[in-house]
Write a structure and sequence with these properties.
Low-confidence stretches of chain A: none
Shape of chain B: flat
Strand content of chain A: under 5%
Low-confidence stretches of chain B: none
Helix content of chain A: 55-70%
Structural class of chain B: mainly alpha
Order of helices and strands of chain A: HHHHHHHHHHHEEHHH
Largest interface: A-B, 87 and 63 residues
Shape of chain A: globular
Order of helices and strands of chain B: HHH
Number of domains of chain A: 2
Number of strands of chain B: 0
Mean pLDDT of chain B: 81
Radius of gyration of chain A: 24 Å
Structural class of chain A: mainly alpha
Number of strands of chain A: 2
Helix content of chain B: 40-55%
Oligomer: heterodimer
Distance between the termini of chain B: 47 Å
Mean pLDDT of chain A: 83
Chain lengths: ~400, ~120
């Protein structure tokens, strides 16, 4: 079932019903005819807008789910239970309504701005951040049907919009006229210049193998073998650079709360703080979703095809692809939470050196390895398992040697 | 690729821009407005703030920013090269690596200036 056809059926049914009601009441005139013509010409745009709002709502629900998972899992990893707020009957002891309580609290808080701040830029910063984070969702397909758009350059588009956030962070940090926010904004810029390049270069190997920027094509190419097997180095580079791009521990330098109070968000209160928080999680979702699409086979099922006859008739052949996709995304996100619980924050010079002297050569090395395999062993392409072994064993061996030589220290 | 493919992107961009402004506008009816001179002060851990933050900030890593501009365009170049790679002949495949090797030599030379920052 296509998302667009489902929504257009629904919208046409509702609008047709409304027009039927109006005409049933005997209201016929130039106005009704004009409205009908208007709807006829705008139908496609209206349906697209409804799809956009639907995808936005799904993204926001994922944010709620990820926040809850993060709190509970980090609590367990720190040997405590984390939030347990709940009403009798609705998930008591699970913290199910904590997030809604937080949202309501932030919604009714006073909106403060320092007198010395550059007022307009200060207000625009979080809005730009949220808008740019939300816009990436348009390029992320959850399955062949559930996609807001099907762009030929979907991967490039997602990367372009994804890399926009440090600019908004920098604007906010500068405009607040506070020393902490200024340092936080500058650190965000530093982090962007150190990890954006390896982030982009880690995709080159995947693009070589898939031969397309279309995310649907990239997922289809992983039908037999996920790219994590063929491109293990690319995944490691992607994962580290992605954590840096979404500014989570161990790379959350822009908001290092031990040194900079709350970093670039220090002066934000109420809904603007909520925006800053929310965009971080939307970016976390997008980063994990791209990682799943590029390296973990997207929505394809990880188990071999099967089907079980159900007692009430019909057959069950596994969950819907969207569910597989979301499960993989959440599993990858749980690894991020695990990393957060395990590691401390790095210094600024460490992240710059990591990006330019470790990740960048590693990403280039991976490209060279991929091209060398395409040149010297093109006949392997027919046998996917042999190709996987031929790709992954030497690369893992070389990374182990680098480790032994102390290159990562 | 047609213009119709990008219609969802344009509409989604509108929705994404309207969403934060609408949400912020909606809080107007719920949030209190009690201005106070102390609330409008810049936060500096409870101290009376000193001086300005709109200064000429000394950006320590400017050399990386300069190289970043070069490598950012190179990475897009590499992505496009990767897209058409199977159709290229051997010389085109290999000459890209010569190009990257030259860039890496330049990078190593530029980073000599930053050696004080080595881990």
């Amino acid at each position: 079932m296509d998302l667009y056809s489902a929504v257009s059926g629904l919208v046409n049914w509702v609008v047709g019903g409304l027009f039927g009601l109006v005409e049933g009441l005997g209201l016929r005139g130039p106005v009704v005819v004009f409205l009908r013509d208007l709807y006829g010409s705008l139908e496609h745009a209206i349906i697209t807008a409804v799809v956009a709002i639907l995808v936005l709502v799904v993204g926001l629900l994922m944010v709620v789910l990820m926040l809850w998972i993060e709190r509970k899992l980090i609590g367990r990893l720190a040997d405590r239970r984390a939030t347990m707020l709940g009403i009798r009957g609705i998930g008591r002891g699970t913290g199910a309504i904590q997030l809604f309580a937080d949202a309501i609290k932030l919604f009714v808080k006073e909106d403060l701005a320092p007198k010395k701040a550059d007022r307009h830029v200060f207000a625009a910063g979080p809005s730009i951040l949220v808008a740019s984070s939300v816009l990436v969702l348009v390029a992320i397909p959850m399955s062949e049907g559930f996609a807001a758009s099907d762009l030929d350059g979907g991967l490039i588009f997602a990367m372009a919009v994804f890399g926009f956030a440090p600019f908004a962070v920098f604007l906010s940090g500068w405009s607040a006229n506070n020393k902490y926010t200024l340092i936080g904004g500058m650190r965000s810029a530093t982090q962007m210049i150190s990890c954006e390049i390896p982030f982009l270069l880690s995709l080159v190997g995947v693009v070589i193998l898939a031969g397309s920027f279309r995310l649907v094509d990239i997922v289809h190419m992983q039908g037999e073998l996920w790219f994590i097997v063929l491109q293990p180095i690319a995944f490691v580079v992607y994962f580290i650079a992605m954590i840096s791009e979404i500014e989570r521990i161990p790379f959350d330098l822009p908001e290092a709360e031990a040194e900079l109070v709350e970093g670039w968000q220090t002066e934000y209160s109420g809904l603007k703080f909520a925006f800053a928080m929310m965009s971080g999680y939307i970016r976390g979702y997008v980063g994990c979703a791209l990682g799943v699409l590029l390296f973990f086979g997207g929505w394809s099922s990880p188990v071999p095809a099967y089907s079980v006859a159900l007692p009430w008739g019909g057959e069950f052949s596994g969950p819907v692809p969207e569910l597989w996709f979301l499960m993989k995304v959440l599993l990858l996100f749980m690894v991020l939470v695990w990393v957060r619980a395990a590691l401390g924050r790095v210094r600024v010079d460490q992240i710059v050196n990591l990006g330019w002297k470790r990740l960048l050569p590693l990403a280039l090395f991976n490209i060279a390895l991929t091209v060398a395999f395409l040149i010297f062993a093109p006949e392997l392409e027919s046998d996917t398992l042999a190709m996987g072994v031929a790709f992954s064993v030497p690369s893992l061996f070389l990374v182990a040697m680098f480790w032994k030589w102390g290159w990562f220290r | 690729m047609t213009q119709a493919d990008y219609l969802p992107v344009a509409i989604f961009a509108l929705v994404a821009l309207i969403f934060p402004f609408l949400a912020f506008f909606a809080t107007r009816f719920f949030r209190p407005e009690k201005p106070h001179a102390l609330k409008a002060q810049t936060y500096e851990c409870g101290e009376v703030p000193r001086g300005e933050a709109h200064i000429q900030f000394s950006f320590q890593y400017y050399i990386f920013a300069l190289i970043f501009v070069v490598f950012d365009s190179v990475s897009i170049f590499l992505l496009l090269w990767a897209l058409v790679l199977p159709g290229l002949d051997l010389a085109a495949k290999v000459s890209m690596f010569l190009f990257i090797l030259v860039l890496l030599a330049v990078l190593a030379h530029a980073l000599k200036k930053e050696e004080a920052l080595a881990i």
